[in-house]
């Protein structure tokens, strides 16, 4: 996945700003390259779970369609655990073509951002090229 540093920085900033709760959002673009970020509200308001606001998701997807963009990534934070998909993340990975980005705040002074494809309950790490 092509992830420009400005998007990586925006995701980490959102995660730090919303801590100790998990954050979430979408990245849209073309050909696997992020071009737009859609921060979403975690309606769970939880440090261990996220569920994006459905109205915000709808608006983001409609905007993507209007701009001829595709969903390239879904991101969220792990406030206390590694940047690796949890069993819940794997069970709720409904978009096999999207990259799942996870930012770990286990050490908030050194956030870690990693990307994964999750297909048929199999997790495969992907590189995040700038």
Brief synopsis:
The chain has 130 residues and is an alpha+beta fold. It has helices at 5-18, 54-66, 87-91; strands at residues 24-30, 33-40, 70-78, 99-104, 112-119, 122-126.
Structure notes:
The chain has 130 residues and is of the alpha+beta class. It has a single domain (5-126), classed as Cytidine Deaminase, domain 2 (3-Layer(aba) Sandwich), CATH 3.40.140.10. The protein has helices spanning 5-18, 54-66, 87-91, and strands spanning 24-30, 33-40, 70-78, 99-104, 112-119, 122-126. Strands 2-1-3-4-5-6 form a six-stranded mixed sheet. Helix 3 links the parallel strand 3 and strand 4 (99-104). It starts with a helix and ends with a strand. The model has no long low-confidence stretch (mean pLDDT 97).
Question: How are the secondary structure elements laid out?
Answer:
Elements: H1 5-18, E1 24-30, E2 33-40, H2 54-66, E3 70-78, H3 87-91, E4 99-104, E5 112-119, E6 122-126
Parallel strand pairs: 3-4
Antiparallel strand pairs: 1-2, 1-3, 4-5, 5-6
Shape: globular
| Architecture (CATH level 2) name | 3-Layer(aba) Sandwich
In the CATH hierarchy, the third-tier topology is known as Cytidine Deaminase, domain 2
Can you say what the CATH homologous superfamily is?
Cytidine Deaminase, domain 2
Radius of gyration: 13 Å
Query: Helical residue percent?
Result: 10-25%
